[in-house]
Specification:
Length: 309
């Protein structure tokens, strides 16, 4: 029905293995919807094995377009580079270690058009390093109003599931240089600009979980940024990367980061507890740590929003 619409798929690979890249790329090449421009940015020029593999793929599939960064420049730079050469009426995000459902783009394009939306996502199914499903399906709110409310507390649309009009990405001038929060910032800007957001109520992506996770320090930096962006979003304000950096370096930002880092370290200690000691330490953490109470409040609030659709 919509086969004439070109979809530009925005991908970036850094240190993913050839095995993961192959599974991810195959899931895109084998989509039921075939009118695609597959833009793959290589953000690690030293990952020779992956480069050789995708070059061979590009020889066989002319839809694949490879961009090689001269050095590691990060996800924001790479995605904006991909956007600069995107020719499609629509853009879709995809990570180089995730696996898309075979009908992902067919379903998302139809859903976006039928509901007169500008940018959408979908549910996700977490998988481990061996593609085994874990945690079940993670659900998100469907309606634009619920998503706008959810944004006050966190990101309601998983970044690798995004599918939207290229005009949205262009009008917002792509991603801002905000490390680890570029997707949340983008959604807040889209919502404040009046774009209509939605979410397909089924899992269309297998999302690979990094078993090693990220350090408590890096996570605290990410959540400090999210805290500031969400605070401004609640007040109806757009922010710039420079404004965020000023906050991060301010007394308030430094204190927030330290508070979050303390919470994440205590949370790691909680995971090591068993039996009665687990509940005692958990209660202790809740009482003495404001960040722990904030997390629980956000979880309960987001669950309530999810139920309202």
């Amino acid at each position: 029905m919509y086969n004439n619409c070109l979809i530009s798929v925005l991908m970036s690979t850094y240190n993913e293995s050839v095995e993961y890249v192959k599974k991810s790329l195959d899931s895109i090449k084998e989509q039921s919807y075939q009118n695609l421009q597959i833009i793959l940015v290589v953000d690690n020029p030293e990952n020779i094995e992956v480069i050789k593999y995708i070059q061979e793929c590009a020889k066989k599939d002319k839809r694949i377009q490879i961009i090689k960064n001269d050095i590691n420049r990060g996800l924001v730079y790479s995605l904006n580079k991909a956007l600069s050469v995107a020719k499609g009426e629509y853009c879709a995000r995809m990570d180089a270690d995730d696996i898309a459902d075979k009908k992902r783009f067919e379903v998302q394009l139809s859903y976006l058009k039928k509901n007169n939306l500008d940018l959408i996502g979908s549910f996700i199914t977490d998988i481990d390093e061996n593609d085994k499903e874990i945690h079940g399906v993670t659900k998100f709110p469907e309606s634009n109003s619920s998503i706008i409310e959810y944004l006050k507390y966190g990101s309601p649309l998983p970044h690798p599931t995004w599918f939207g009009k290229k005009s949205v990405f262009k009008s917002l001038h792509g991603y801002q240089n905000i490390d680890a929060c570029e997707d949340y910032d983008f959604l807040c800007r889209a919502a404040l600009k009046g774009y209509r957001l939605g979410c397909v109520q089924k899992s269309l992506l297998k999302y690979r979980i990094n078993i090693n996770g990220i350090s408590s320090t890096k996570r605290s930096i990410q959540k400090t940024a999210l805290y500031y962006i969400s605070k401004q979003y609640k007040n109806g304000k757009l922010i710039t990367a420079k404004e965020l950096q000023r906050f991060v370096n301010s007394d308030e930002g430094i204190a927030k980061k330290a508070s979050l880092e303390k919470y994440y370290k205590m949370s790691e200690n909680l995971k090591k507890k068993t039996g009665v000691s687990y509940y005692i330490y958990g209660a202790y953490l809740f009482v003495i740590c404001r960040e722990a109470r904030n997390v629980i409040y956000k979880i309960l609030t987001c669950k309530r929003i999810n139920k309202t659709k």
